[in-house]
Amino acid sequence: MAHKSDLIAEDIAGYLKAQENKSLLRFITCGSVDDGKSTLIGRLLYESKLIFEDQLAALEADSKKVGTQGEQIDFALLVDGLAAEREQGITIDVAYRFFSTDVRKFIVADTPGHEQYTRNMATGASTAQLAIVMIDARKGLLTQTRRHSFILSLLGIKHVVLCINKMDLVDYSEETFEEIEDAYRKFAKPLGIADITAIPVSALVGDNVTEPSQHMQWYHGSTLMSHLETIKVEDEVREKPFRMPVQWVNRPNLDFRGFSGFVSSGTIKPGDRVRALPSARTSTVARLVTYDGDLDRAVAGQSVTITLADEIDISRGDVICAAEAPAEVADQFEAKIIWMSDEEMLPGRPYLMKMGTRQASVQIAQPKYKVNVNTMEELAAKTLELNEIGVCNIALDRDVAFEPYENDQAMGGFILIDRMTNNTVGMGMINFALRRASNIHWQVIEVNKAARAELKQQRGCVLWFTGLSGSGKSTIANIVEKRLYSMGRHTYMLDGDNVRHGLNKDLGFTDADRVENIRRVSEVSRLMVDAGLVTLVSFISPFRAERRLVRDLLEPREFIEVFIDTPLNVAEIRDPKGLYKRARLGEIKNFTGIDSPYEAPEAAEIPIDTTSLTAEQAADTIVAYLTANGYLSNG
């Protein structure tokens, strides 16, 4: 809510103008569970008289019913609004509150303390300029305090207020305060947090929140509210080169074509030279258009529509930059990643990456290391699990304009999205582009795929046989290859068992290894298709995401999914290798269909029902499909 002012009744226009000219500070509260974050925000609002009378009455009533402070007001209830939060007395979701004083406007994010909800804290911190790190004076630094502080440093937050809370429960001890402050500063020093201000408070009682404490005469610093009102938060983005990710190509009629977006850094004015990335084409700004009319200048933090003097190709996701100081362009990076999903990260699996207005497909390599947030030690890791933080190389399917995150958060930060569920599973910060991204280029080869296919009088393709173990994939694929060979066709077969004797002999059967297994085979399959071969691939390949990866690697119609559809009970009866029996006995772990899932194709080009077709009939069906669709001629 807004700060109470006589201007509201006397001169509403003047009040709104005054609000418009105030600076805005975005900050978060973070720290371990039950350190008093929500109580502190509630106390700030209460002491600043920023609560309506009906809100106060409801707060008093709720405090008696579900509060944790006996007959006293439970200020945490002002921000803990979810039923589950009130029942448990904890914060679960990020709660945002807007308020203002005579000096400044504020947006505060109250973030959860539980490790389970670290991802929510990272979300709240991603747009903050300052962080209040809460520490319970009785407990000192805890693991979650360290984790949150590390995330703050990753996200580039330069200003930290160390609120050592519940001082009333340690008899307002100066010694306790100094011990905790010293321990935190030693921990935070290698993190590179530039500005730390320590304030002893009691959020429940109100000491040093808005008024100086009468119980801590030894403290001579400012109150928390005074510090928030007066701290200078550097606004460096306007001094940086111009950057505007294009959100929308604005074409209301034939006579107007503009590019709309949010200016993330720098300034721009008509007549300035700009460069569109990744195409690198240049032009000159003609107009800066807004709903209220044209501007003489646009600065970081404004949304504008730019029209250019030249007709150049710019689409959503491209970035318009200062021509003389453009952003970098690359498709491979080293990045810090905070994993936010209950399901572990699977290196090699394709995810979606959203960076600004640009979306791309991305593959994440095995982490170089993950970080122990207690010791800052770099540990070896094969994957990342919920709330873990690591450094990984990532590869995109296209070039993107970027800046290292430490230079420009808007141009260097991204989120990761699961392609199947559309859930956000991680967030990341680009460190730098990999040198190999600029040093390695496609070599032009004159004898190309079309020439090789013409020589063989066929079209190269991948017949991807997928199904449960024991479904008959390899048997049917083998018959198909013999039929094609007898017809004089050029083929090659990649069988799941065979490649594990060589190419994939180092891989096991965990989900992560299965993903890498398919990734390697998909790259080999692409080379086979480039050679003009009809390539038969027989793999369980249980995950749709990995089969989609193979399809996306190839050109349209080059990937043919053959679903060998055999019910689990039928596959178990066949069980030619005795694997199902061993899996049921617990002798084989991560066995597909037993303790590891199989995701059946949703729209396979060739579905084969092995309960109604023999292997020979299935092979006939597949060869007939190839013949009917022109794969066995070069037409």
Extended strand count: 28
Strand content: 25-35%
Span from first to last CA? Answer: 70 Å
Identify the strand order in the major beta sheet.
Answer: 2-3-1-4-5-6
CATH architecture of the largest domain: 3-Layer(aba) Sandwich
CATH class of the largest domain: Alpha Beta
Major beta sheet, specifics?
A: 6 strands, mixed
Task: Summarize the amount of helix as a percent range.
Answer: 25-40%
Q: Can you offer a commentary on this structure?
A:
The protein is α+β, with helices and mostly antiparallel strands and 635 residues long. It folds into four domains: 7-230, P-loop containing nucleotide triphosphate hydrolases (Rossmann fold, 3-Layer(aba) Sandwich), CATH 3.40.50; 237-322, Elongation Factor Tu (Ef-tu), domain 3; 328-438, Elongation Factor Tu (Ef-tu), domain 3 (Beta Barrel); 449-628, P-loop containing nucleotide triphosphate hydrolases (Rossmann fold, 3-Layer(aba) Sandwich), CATH 3.40.50.300. Helices cover 28% and strands 28% of the residues. It contains 19 helices and 28 strands. A six-stranded mixed β-sheet has the order 2-3-1-4-5-6, with helices on both faces. Strand 22 (413-417) and strand 23 form a beta hairpin. Helix 6 (118-125) runs parallel beside helix 7, helix 13 (473-486) crosses helix 19 and helix 15 (511-530) packs parallel to helix 16 (544-553). It is globular and about 95 Å long. It starts with 6 loop residues before the first helix and ends in a 7-residue tail after the last helix. The model is unreliable at 80-92 (pLDDT under 50).
